[in-house]
Design a protein that fits this description.
There is one protein chain. With 452 residues, this protein is α/β, with parallel strands linked by helices. Helices cover 32% and strands 12% of the residues. It is built from 12 helices and 12 strands. Strands 1, 5, 6, 7, 8, 9, 10, 11 and 12 form a 9-stranded mixed beta sheet that branches. The chain is globular and about 70 Å long.
Length: 452
């Protein structure tokens, strides 16, 4: 029989990816010294993988603007009388409506707790149609590519590759302000992601229902699996001569401690009466609500959650699939907002959407293809709601913002969008260029959709 080797056991245990606080590159700048925050704030990113056709999510209802929309969208156009009316302030004579499946968001918008940022997307610098045609400005590379544009939204990389994301850089900046937190600032319920990657901090990845438990371990003292757990802890707590062995053992130890701490906390969460849809996104947001409910127990002051759902790559069957997709987003976000109201924390939690890109205005016969700038949704008590931010384009094929097939050039950058959220989160203006590296290329650093 082969002798038991604790080094082999550590090497093959496979627990390293769950949670760690491993050293990274020197990160010289932090927010406000080492003082802790005296309030709580959370950002919740809802990523719609595949590219949401957001010009059917938000549609102009005014006759002239709707006519341009209907002519461009052809068989994909939502009937004017079916649009759910919204009354955004500051839009002059223009009237707008939401997709018919988004009644829950319509109610939140009209109550003043939701807003939309229009025609927003990845940009390196302000870009006009003439700039695009002449090649006179720097553009994000690989436009209209799923993976590349997902990376653009989550890292704000611009033209330069980045191994960190904008939420990860935020967590690095505040790391000395949140030393008492018993859970990582960044938490994902949809696997690892570039948005939360960082130099100095590590995101906590969990399942839809909470922390992923270790196979072969138990907290029941009467179980043989408890004895295996104790044996494993003796191994990781042993003395090791190599810095690599010590670092790896530390990762394992932190993974177990994090799973235990968060599991115990979430199991003690008070019941939440808000009814969540039984969907992938609904389950994720329900768990986020439960985690927020135990924020004091975990000594949390700042949190960034990443949740996601897919199916938005609507090359085919768009008319059949889009109502369910947008209805699912509307119902899940509405239930989550209701939970934050129930918990008395709605002013301190902001939910926002991202997606690969919008879709072409033109129909390919049964669906749409990859495009660029689109509309994103914001929900929360701190959102300066019942407004549209940015410049909504004329939805006309060949128009001033169209670079082909109804692909709109963004008039607002993803950097401006992220920087506005980061500022509300507690990042000083002087540090926003770390979060959003291309922000200095744009005159407006704060889009104004958050109430300080």
């Amino acid at each position: 029989m082969k002798a038991f080797n604790r080094r082999d056991f550590l090497r093959t245990s496979g627990a390293a990816a769950v949670f760690a606080a491993t050293p990274g590159l020197a990160y010289s700048q932090v927010v406000g010294g080492s003082g802790s925050f005296d309030d709580y704030r959370a950002l919740v990113c809802v990523f719609m993988f595949g590219g949401n056709d957001s010009y059917n999510m938000l549609v102009p209802r005014s006759d002239a603007e709707y006519t341009a929309y209907a002519n461009s969208r052809q068989n994909l156009a939502i009937a004017q009388q079916d649009l759910l009316p919204i009354t955004p302030s500051g839009q002059g004579a223009a009237e707008f409506g939401l997709h018919p499946s988004m009644g829950a968001i319509q109610s939140i918008f009209e109550a003043g707790n939701a807003a939309l940022v229009t025609n927003v997307g990845p940009l390196v610098e302000p870009t006009t149609k003439a700039d695009f045609i002449n090649g006179s400005v720097m553009l994000p590379p690989q436009l209209f590519s799923h993976n590349d544009q997902q990376d653009q939204w989550t890292s704000l990389r611009g033209a330069v590759p980045s191994k960190t994301g904008w939420a990860g850089r935020m967590a690095d900046l505040i790391r000395t302000n949140v030393t008492e937190q018993q859970m990582a600032t960044n938490a994902s319920l949809f696997g690892t992601n570039l948005m939360q990657s960082a130099d100095e901090t590590v995101a906590y990845v969990m399942g839809q229902g909470g922390p992923l438990q270790f196979n072969g371990f138990s907290l029941d003292p009467d179980s043989i699996l408890f004895q295996q757990r104790e044996a494993f802890l003796r191994i990781v707590n042993a003395e090791y001569g190599s810095v690599y062995e010590r670092g790896f053992a530390d990762v394992q130890r932190r993974a177990i401690e994090a799973a235990d701490t968060v599991s115990v906390a979430i199991d003690s969460a008070p019941p939440i009466n808000a009814v969540f849809p039984q969907s992938q996104l609904g389950n994720q947001l329900q768990t986020v609500a439960r985690l927020i409910a135990v924020r004091d127990q975990l000594q949390m002051k700042r949190q960034i959650f990443f949740v996601a759902t897919g199916g938005f790559d609507s090359h085919d069957d768009q008319n059949q699939n889009q109502p369910g997709l947008l209805g699912g987003i509307s119902d899940a976000i509405s239930a989550f907002h209701a939970a934050t109201v129930e918990l008395g924390i709605d002013d301190d939690v902001t939910t926002f959407t991202q997606s690969d890109f919008a879709r072409t205005l033109t129909s390919n016969g049964d669906g749409t293809d990859h495009a660029w700038g689109g509309n994103q949704l914001l929900v929360g008590g701190a959102v300066a709601g019942r407004q549209l931010y940015g410049n909504f384009p004329v939805l006309e094929i060949g128009g001033a913002e169209d670079v082909g097939g109804g692909r709109m050039i963004p008039s607002t950058s993803a950097d401006q969008y992220a920087a506005t959220l980061a500022k509300w989160f507690g990042i000083p203006d002087v540090d926003l260029d770390i979060v959003a590296p291309n922000l200095s290329n744009f005159a407006q650093r704060d889009l104004g959709f958050m109430i300080s």
